[in-house]
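Example for reference:
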Amino acid sequence: MTHSHQNLLGEPPATLLPPTPEADRELAEGTPAAEVASRHPTVSAAWAALAEEALGRPERQLRDTVEGYAYARTGYHRGLDALRRNGWKGFGPVPWAHEPNRGFLRCVTELAKAAEAIGEYEEHERCVQLLRDCDPSLAP
């Protein structure tokens, strides 16, 4: 006789952020991320785009890294606010496969990169762990 074991504790359900169609459309149409962030300051995707731009500059300088860190940190906090408003309790899946979650997850990724670049290794590790916890496919 084969017995299967059921996880009685279970994992919390995935948190799925609502779409932000106007901001997403503006970003897709090539509206500068700074303009989108100024019109939609709660949308993490705009802050992620700003962070990626700053951290992706050729011959990046320390100022670019700090700028990217600040953008990523802002989007990260805006994302945490949105996640909490949508039932997230600080843990549980936040899947990349759900498009509206990607702005937040991109901010966490960029924050990890920037933190590592300025020698803030504990923050880097915390961000990498958060990515693993949200969606194991994202973190190295």
